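Recall that a protein's primary structure is simply its ordered list of amino acids. Everything else, from secondary elements to tertiary packing, is in principle encoded there. The following example makes that idea concrete.
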Amino acid sequence: MNFLVKLNDGTSSNGNTISGCFADHCDWRLPTIVELQTILLAPYPCGTDPCINQTIFGPTQSFIYWSSITVATSPSLAWFVGFDGGNVNYNDKPANL
């Protein structure tokens, strides 16, 4: 999860400056599958696209959002939530995680 390291380390891209991390927070992480499910408007199929409250969360893309949770029986798989309809599923972990 190189992107999380970069968000949290506080070092600028030139490696010289220490900043306030990303958006002044240094504790970024992937949410759990339960946390992602709690922000869905409705269970699958949701009927809206994206399936989250845009008033609270602002403009959000209708993509899948990965959780930090690995499938217990298969370490190469992780859980995700599809904000395009509210589906919860798992798939191969992306190579860049």
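Residues 1-28 form one domain. The first strand starts at residue 64 and ends at 71.
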